[in-house]
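User: Thanks for the earlier help. One more: Bile acid 7-dehydroxylase 1/3. Can you show the sequence and predicted structure together?

Assistant: Of course, both are below.
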Amino acid sequence: MAKADVELQDFSNIFSLEGKVAVVTGGSRGLGLHSASGLLQAGCSKVFITSRKASACEEAVAALNALPNKRPGAIAISVPADSSKISEIERLVKEVEKHTDHVDILFANAGATWGAYFDEHPEGAFSKVMDLNVKSVFYTIQKFAPLLEKNATIESPSRVLVTGSVAGVAIGSMGQNATYSYSASKAAVLHLARNLAVELGPRHILVNGIAPGFFPTKMANVLMEKSGGIDSLSKSSPNLRLGRPEDIAAAVVFLSSRGSGHLNGTTMVLDGGKIWAGSKL
């Protein structure tokens, strides 16, 4: 029997982001900040941090630039902007263009939530959540598209990641903390990512969604306490814990790397299998 030829590939840099330029909206705290840390440590040369509060951006950038294991010359840059306003998104793009002529990775992570009884959920809150979690994500991607296209190729496509939630895949919180607008917005933004994957794929931009479960963050902590607390929620998950900073950072690095080059329009659920456990989030 003839011996089959075996051709091995070089996978040594399959998860490297060496020299890449990234923009993280909502990057001054929580999942955005953890992700920015992962991007820098995976080799990005520039990571732009943006959120509404300038002081929060500056504090985040100072912490990121103090990381001991980022590449020589790598830098985090603060660009405060209110992503709920299209004029601010356009200004954000112009500020980024002062530092770079292209962007390789856009993590559209800015978002808000609101909890209230069904009969008491205010119209203004619904509009605010939908505008920030869906509309602003679309226009952020639209305005950054020329920079994302600049260096993108079939072999090295640019990446867009959007933050959804398991609440947009299964049923979200109910009762007095019901998150109707949040859950609807996260389902919408994940489906938006699928549509944009088809639209932007031929332009060498891959679009994927991330659907986190409970991670201890400022936005989630209040709801987590009202849902039983960290210990109770951990025990209800099949892997017996909640999300950790490295979980979101690793997912973002993977979806930004060569290793995910054939993923487009997918949703990565980060909840330890809780979504399959049959209980409400």
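User: Great, one quick takeaway?

Assistant: The chain has a mean pLDDT of 90.
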